[in-house]
Amino acid sequence: MPVSDVLSEIKKDYLYNLVLKGERADGRSFEQYREISIEKNVVRKAEGSALVKLGQTQVLVGVKMQPGEPFPDTPNRGVIITNAELVPLASPTFEPGPPSEVGIELARVVDRGVRESKAVDLEALCIVPGKQVWIIFIDVHILDDCGNILDASSLGAIAALLTTRVPASKFDLGEDYSLPIKDIPIATTAIEFGDVLMFDPDVDEQSIANTRLTVITTASGNICGMQKSGKGTLKQEQIYRIVDIACEKAKEIREKFLEA
Amino acid sequence: MDETDITFFKDGFRLDGRRAEELRPVKMEVGVLARADGSCYIEMGGNKVIAAVYGPREVHPRHLQEVTRAIVRYRYNMASFSVEERKRPGPDRRSYELSKVSREALEPVILTSYFPRSVIDVFVEVLQADAGTRTAGINAAAVALADAGIPMKSMISACAAGKVDDTLVLDPMKEEDNFGQADLPIAMTPNGEITLIQMDGGLTPDELHQAVEMAMKGCRDIYEIQRKCLVEKYSQLEAPAEEVHACE
């Protein structure tokens, strides 16, 4: 057995024994998030940006915008393109090269939150119907993966969009203006381990859990996206419980950090 | 697009004449490919999907092998002609994601520890797409795994629920998916252990509960079809002759 597997068995045992006592390694309660901090506009060259810290996890999200062609089936709407890079500086398990399955999933779930919550008023981003619309590139850069990069990335994406100025003057399209934002989606992730649901898993907790569920909620308390991940199962009641807590947590995070 | 002129319901019936909580017709055939260890062809409404299972077999490249269990690979692939606008052949970001979640939908029931250092390959080809290809693929793949004789703890059945015109519907078809308000695919064991859940669109917490119930009911119906399909094939097989005559 490789050393990493042996270590993970030992870790699993340790964490499981803590769970039996109702504890987590860092002393948090099962539903408690690590400390969150959001620094906005950290990259001047980007139209919008945010550095999110979730405990020791660090994610930088940058937004760039440029005029381009709309999709043929949505001629009057701007376009959102979300990308995530798991750069090798962020974790010993990330490798350079084309995006991994995990990276693609991450980008698509972040995208799902922004898109399905209708957070960006895409109709307001039409320049010439059918010809020219604004294209928003949301690029997620993971800097330090200490667990739950999904929630951090999702938070970074909406925080960056909230600071985004449409660079109209750069393209002779009038004055710059703030990107019209209509909703604030928040992703909340929990893992299932030993019949316990733990929110905001750190990197060890994540590595031992078989199942993870992310729930994205909107400001009105509705659900706009979900994604189960990992080779385990969930019971119906567990899903409902995660959804309930996700709604609460998202409300707290939204009020504290993003509704200024 | 959110605003359309499509009327999704007429006198309580859907565009294709179904009721809100009704599945599309399902046709399933097991063992359709000669070379594969297990295979299954499924039609769910306008979807035509074929799944093949190879393995357990040797892992290539070898560094992927696991010493304590078999690895499972799942490749979801759409034929370029399966959709209205020709799809560029080869995997895109969507198919990478679907392959991942579909694999994770099946892995919980596969007894991988029986086959260390090997791989179980599942290949799913979408020949014709009409919303719900991932669930059709998972249904076919689960039957193909059983057909290949892979030890499994249980069957996996998948089905989606959606929301159109503020009404929840089972197994959305293309129009309902494109212009609908939400889509919630689920895969589960017959005992109700959920192995896949995804959602996009907008649902209130109450609607979410109802949609999950609805999709789970759909999964149970599909399970019966899967079971019947496998029983039908294997009950027809003759037992091998008991006496074997050796060559002289």
Task: Report on the architecture of this protein.
The complex is a heterodimer of chains A (260) and B (248). With 260 residues, chain A is α+β, with helices and mostly antiparallel strands. Helix content of chain A is 30%, strand content 30%. Chain A has helices spanning 3-20, 101-116, 149-163, 203-208, 236-258; strands spanning 36-40, 48-54, 57-68, 79-85, 126-128, 132-144, 165-166, 177-178, 186-193, 196-199, 211-217, 223-229. In chain A, the strands form 3 sheets. In chain A, strands 1, 2, 3, 4, 5 and 6 form a 6-stranded mixed β-sheet that branches. Chain A has a 4-stranded antiparallel β-sheet with strand order 10-9-11-12, with helices on both faces. A two-stranded antiparallel ribbon of chain A has the order 7-8. Chain B has one domain (10-234): GHMP Kinase, N-terminal domain (Ribosomal Protein S5, domain 2), CATH 3.30.230. Chain B has 4 helices and 11 strands; from the N terminus they run ββββββαβαββαββα. Chain B has helices spanning 93-106, 133-147, 174-178, 205-236; strands at residues 9-10, 13-14, 26-30, 38-44, 47-58, 71-78, 118-128, 157-164, 167-170, 182-188, 194-203. In chain B, helix 1 (93-106) packs across helix 2 and helix 2 packs parallel to helix 4 (205-236). The mean pLDDT of chain B is 94. The A-B interface holds A 1-2, 5, 73-74, 99, 101, 104-105, 107-108, 112, 115-117, 210, 213, 218, 221-236, 239-240, 243-244, 247 and B 1, 67-68, 93-94, 96-97, 99-101, 103-104, 107-108, 184, 188-189, 192-205, 208-209, 212, 216. Strand 12 of chain A pairs antiparallel with strand 11 (194-203) of chain B, so a sheet runs across the interface.
